[in-house]
Design the sequence.
């Protein structure tokens, strides 16, 4: 499939409209920019959508927040023409990645809960099961359990293992090897690493530090050749890539000074290697990150996501009409690109 | 602190590295032709370093201002505003030595400027952990040395600039309507993470951290007369601007779980996050690739763009080779090259 990203700006579209002769083309381009309606037949697939297993909910949450339930998701999904949401557990590294039996039990409990939600609504929910990093043996068991018993659609990991190790670390190699064997889709969700929690009293670590850690994890994977060595793994990263597309050029130019870097990991250049990541637009569909993203990403690697319920869906969908992307582009982002990773939802 | 290209790698090494790793964004054949368009631009480089011989980690570089002039002549850069680099550890240790170092560096910059007033300006450095000494150095640098603003590294080890201890300094800089140029440095938290060199991604993160620290602590709103200059096309500021807006503390972005798209304002950010961030100045050193320029163009008006190179740490080529490929409209290109800088420093007007 070929998507035309050559004229992503609203200015160009308006110019086309003004030209008159291009009215048919422009009208086609303008279609699909609706908040409530997907450009794709069959509706949107939300690849960034969270479960909150009852036993793992942390405290009361933000004041006035409605507690998450599968029904709450379905209501919101219906509002915005989202037919399918692929569930992952949200940011709870302290409960899941504590390297104890308790953490392993929590992961299992969350996975079983997610599987039940999926079984209750098999057409509406997919599931990417969690793993109890940093315990590699536990990870291997949970991968097997997730795929073989729970029939998961993929595996969810965080951008670090809560011990200041990032996913390219050789420590993770057995996990990547197994995920590669299974041709797994991996959702890589940010977690503020221990180094960088509560750095600055007025800036919550849940903000910048999440986006930074996405980029850190990507560079860790890059310099350790993970996607080169394990080419059948497909990794999705959120928030229009965090900061990665914006600074990809600077990462490229620094590759050669990384200690022990290996040129065989980048046969087609650094950018080509970074372009292997699939990227969702949750809470980062603002015109600024999207401008960088469409210059960076391969057209079939961009996906719709919302980060619901930690994030309201509106913070993603409200921006859609402002971007000037064509209906064909939205069809791919909303559904077609995700269908290729999760073929069971194909319509 | 280790910094691989400060002492070791030559321009050739870096250029070879760039060419070897980046076929898709930097077609080698176009490089020379693009660079030749430079000489008519008469650019003003606001991110340009002096490496004084008394700075311990720069002794081996044998830098003189002539090194800068030769490079500027090669690429049609008319003027450069000099600042220190990789010096946070010498400036912000709170000792008498740091106070002396700042003074020595400022006199070095002033001398370069006096010898070539049309070609050089300079940003003063401040021993910011010592508040009294900082206030004295501001007076001396502005009133006696006639500096063009100040240069701050993005953290002082474990503090970012929104910390209340720095308010007297910013109030004084605001009174003087000073330019404040931020240069990245890696904070104590973040050395040697992820098996990737500090210079690869942590620099841009820390620039973003310090801008958000200033925003959320109300310093940007309070100091409306400071001309804030952000490095590397804004590091991650343009791409994260939306997420930053929706996370302004006490801004009520998602009251009762309902999204409020107009949010981003609070007592400390009364005009909103985007108002403050869009009026910062953004220099483009080593960030003229398609992605950062696309994000910056969407985010900030062209009145806020400045030219920078990060020379001699970064080869001038890594900024100027890419710039013509962005095909900026000529008025925008001129604004970036020198027009906006002329407004900030009328002395460079010719």
Sequence:
């Amino acid at each position: 499939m070929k998507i035309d990203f050559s004229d992503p700006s609203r200015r160009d579209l308006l110019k086309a409209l003004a030209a008159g002769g291009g009215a048919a083309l422009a009208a086609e381009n303008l279609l699909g920019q609706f908040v409530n309606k997907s450009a794709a037949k069959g509706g949107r697939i939300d690849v960034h959508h969270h479960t909150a297993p009852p036993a793992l909910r942390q405290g009361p949450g933000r004041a006035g927040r409605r507690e998450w339930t599968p029904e709450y998701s379905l209501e919101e999904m219906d509002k915005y023409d989202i037919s399918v949401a692929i569930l992952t557990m949200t940011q709870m590294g302290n409960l899941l990645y504590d390297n104890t039996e308790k953490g392993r039990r929590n992961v299992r409990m969350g996975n079983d809960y997610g599987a039940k939600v999926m079984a209750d609504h098999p057409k509406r929910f997919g599931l990417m099961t969690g793993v109890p990093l940093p315990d590699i043996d536990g990870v291997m068991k949970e991968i097997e359990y997730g795929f073989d018993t729970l029939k998961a659609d993929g595996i969810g990991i965080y951008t670090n293992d809560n011990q200041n190790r990032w996913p390219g670390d050789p420590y993770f190699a057995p996990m990547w090897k197994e995920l590669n064997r299974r041709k797994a889709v991996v959702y890589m969700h940010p977690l503020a690493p221990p180094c960088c929690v509560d750095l600055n009293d007025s800036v919550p670590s849940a903000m910048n530090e999440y986006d930074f850690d996405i980029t850190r994890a990507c560079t860790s994977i890059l310099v350790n050749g993970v996607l080169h060595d394990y080419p059948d793994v497909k990794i999705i990263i959120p928030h229009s890539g965090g900061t990665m597309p914006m600074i990809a050029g600077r990462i490229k130019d620094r590759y050669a000074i990384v200690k022990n870097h290996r040129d065989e990991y980048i046969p087609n250049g650094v950018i080509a290697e970074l372009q292997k990541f699939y990227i969702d637009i949750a809470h980062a569909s603002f015109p600024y990150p999207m401008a960088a993203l469409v210059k960076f990403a391969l057209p079939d690697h961009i996906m719709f996501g919302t980060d619901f319920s930690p994030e309201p869906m509106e913070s993603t969908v409200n921006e859609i009409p402002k971007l000037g992307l064509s209906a064909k582009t939205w069809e791919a982002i909303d559904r077609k690109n995700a269908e290729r990773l999760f073929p069971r939802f194909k319509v | 602190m280790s910094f691989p290209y400060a002492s070791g790698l030559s321009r050739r090494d870096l250029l070879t590295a760039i060419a070897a790793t980046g076929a898709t964004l930097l077609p080698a054949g176009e490089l020379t032709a693009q660079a030749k368009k430079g000489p008519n631009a008469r650019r003003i480089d606001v991110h340009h370093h002096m490496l004084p011989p008394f700075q311990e980690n720069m002794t081996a570089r044998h830098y003189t201002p002539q090194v800068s002039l030769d490079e500027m002549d090669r690429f049609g850069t008319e003027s450069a505003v000099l600042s220190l680099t990789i010096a946070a550890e010498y400036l912000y240790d709170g000792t008498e030595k740091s106070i002396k170092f700042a003074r020595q560096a400022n006199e070095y910059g002033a001398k370069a400027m006096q010898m070539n007033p049309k070609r050089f300006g300079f940003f003063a450095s401040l021993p910011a952990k010592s508040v009294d000494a900082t206030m004295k150095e501001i007076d001396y640098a502005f009133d006696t040395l006639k500096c063009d603003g100040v240069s701050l590294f993005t953290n002082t080890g474990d503090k970012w600039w929104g910390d209340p201890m720095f308010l007297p300094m910013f109030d004084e800089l605001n009174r003087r309507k000073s330019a404040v140029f931020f240069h990245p440095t890696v904070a104590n938290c973040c050395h040697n993470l992820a098996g990737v060199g500090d210079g690869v991604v942590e620099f841009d993160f820390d620039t973003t951290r310090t801008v958000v620290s200033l925003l959320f602590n109300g310093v940007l709103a309070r100091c409306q007369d400071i001309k804030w200059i952000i490095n590397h096309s804004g590091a991650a500021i343009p791409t994260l601007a939306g997420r930053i807006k929706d996370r302004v503390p006490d801004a009520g972005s998602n009251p009762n779980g309902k999204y409020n798209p107009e949010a981003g304002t609070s007592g400390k950010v009364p005009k909103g996050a985007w108002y403050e961030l869009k009026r910062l100045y953004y220099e483009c050193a080593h960030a003229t690739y398609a992605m950062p320029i696309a994000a910056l163009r969407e985010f900030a008006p062209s009145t806020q763009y400045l030219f920078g190179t990060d020379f001699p740490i970064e080869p001038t080529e890594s900024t100027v080779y890419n710039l013509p490929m962005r095909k900026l409209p000529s008025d925008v290109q001129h604004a970036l090259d020198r027009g906006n800088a002329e407004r900030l420093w009328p002395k460079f007007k010719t």
